[in-house]
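Good morning C.,

I know you're traveling, so I'll keep this short. The sequence:
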Amino acid sequence: QNLTMEFGIPVERIDWLLNNALDIFGYSEESGGWDKLYRDPADGRFWLLTYPFSEIQGGGPPTLRRLALTEEEARARYLSPEEWHKRMEKFMRDRNIRYISPDDNQP
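The tokens, ready to paste straight into the viewer:
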């Protein structure tokens, strides 16, 4: 199924961009990490991944849109991946829940 979201970017294209062309830059603390900021290493532009349909399981299909941010603005508004994972690990540890990092290769 070819779902097309904002700006006409098909979900399949969004998946390809996230896996092949964009680098994760940060996480939105306000959205609980659902909104993620990516950066295009080729030109430095920022792209925001959101799931705007909260009434649908998993937030529905993703939306990817370009944001006109400076690096300074992006750093002020979004947590770095390292800081996000550090906070998530603490959150889980404080609740006695095992936190598995995306980098954790344990079975």
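Safe travels,
E.
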